[in-house]
Amino acid sequence: MTDNQLKIPINYVEVSEILKKALKLTGSPVAVKFAATKEDIPSGIEELDKTIRHCMMVNLARKEGRIFYSPVSKHECNGGAWALGLRGITPTLKTGEFYFKLGKFNSAAACKRTIDQIPHLQSGETYATMYAPLEKTPFTPHVVIIMASPWAMLKLAQSSLFRLGGRVLGSCAGIQSVCSDAAALPYLSGKPNFSLGCDGSRKFSGIADDEMVIGIPVEMIPEFAQSIEVIVGAAGSKK
Predict the structure, then answer these.
(1) Which of 20, 71, 83, 135 could be joined to 180 by an S-S link, Cβ 3.0–4.6 Å?
(2) Helices (H), 31-85
């Protein structure tokens, strides 16, 4: 499908196939969109038929090829729904009590310092989140999420530096990786972000122990596709 909502069109089928082959992906890159209103959802896209976590929704598109949208009522994880702009932050999450009770921090204060720095969309800004395998997306995504091996992430990191060089800066906290690190942050910053994943996403969504996650603003996807083929085929690249 060729995009008709960006000034510079993107051929999602071509880009997805390049990424899948070059990175040896076991599933598809996932297109994610933050729909501000019900009218932003194209006709024919069905509402998700169960209540699960955002990270699990990503995996439905990645592994099963599902295309759907999910309003706040279908988001099981309060932290994820908050990060994605679907609902306000819960009191226990805001104070640090939630993750403190899970044993993730030495004190509630340490947890609160972390929560205060979690990238998130404004509460109520999102009506629904939308998901599709990149090669089949019927909508213009805001970000593309890829789950892959550390080797693949190395190639993506090298691809991000291919044109201009520099350093790769990743932002994560070991919590809210697929919702905040890989969806909200790339959308808000306009920059790709690498994440180590989190216990929740690894437990519930199918991210394997030998996989990481990255979120890429959709506008940058063509550049990654162009660079990745050169990077993977380079003489100094480990095949």
Answers:
(1) 83
(2) 54-64, 78-83
